[in-house]
Design goal:
Layout (H helix, E strand, L loop, with lengths): L1 H48 L1
Length: 50
């Protein structure tokens, strides 16, 4: 019984870790996309001026 409890606890930790990791990766992607959009906008902006 004790062993089973330990396993569930470990699974919970794995899930938590994955959530954190996934959230972190998602934030990195959003930041990257924002940077990309900013770059594209500034390029288009400079093209419009010319």
């Amino acid at each position: 019984m004790f062993e089973k409890g330990r396993k569930v606890e470990l699974d919970d930790r794995k899930i938590e870790f994955r959530k954190i990791l996934f959230g972190f990766l998602l934030l990195q992607n959003v930041k990257f996309l924002k940077d990309e959009v900013t770059t594209i906008n500034s390029i288009e902006g400079s093209n419009r001026k010319n």
